[in-house]
Amino acid sequence: MPTTPVTAANNTSTAAQETIMLELVDEDGNTIGTAEKLTAHQAPGQLHRAFSVFLFDEQGRLLLQRRALGKYHSPGVWSNTCCGHPYPGEAPFAAAARRTHEELGISPSLLAAAGTVRYNHPDPHSGLVEQEYNHLFVGLPQSAPVPDPEEVEEIAYVTPAELAERHATAPFSAWFMTVLDTARPAIRELTGSAAGW
Description:
Layout: H1 5-10, E1 21-25, E2 31-36, H2 37-41, E3 48-55, E4 62-67, E5 78-79, E6 82-84, H3 92-104, E7 108-122, E8 129-141, E9 152-158, H4 160-169, H5 176-191
Parallel strand pairs: 3-8
Antiparallel strand pairs: 1-2, 3-6, 4-5, 4-9, 7-8
């Protein structure tokens, strides 16, 4: 992925020394400051900018990921293709493309904005809170995913019926249904009515 001034400024050579800053926003999505990532997620949570990506294959199946077991927040649960936080000053679109490549080794094509959603989802297992103003994107993968095992435990392409079955039996991220439901109009536009989304 190309290095931009924002990503270069936020890269560190040693992960142990890494401090990730998030962009704090007001209820309308206007930037009002920054906070360290873990601090922003501690109860009651600070409203911050986030993004969620939904990628679909040529059959209209959604690419899910199961988050790596080593993640401090929502480990081992299924979620959408990719989600995360822009660095302060980084455009949500650029952050979405960057993290999709970092986590899954793919660059999305036809990546399109699918709206925004604001939510407050506590994680019952960790006690952390997702107070997010989330920018949603839909698109297609340009190639087969090559997941980073430190980020992603496993992946699966699912139809709407397969998703419903999996969602009924497996743990999913607290935010998953909120972001999926908000993105559905853009998903239908991308995949067509036959895909069933």
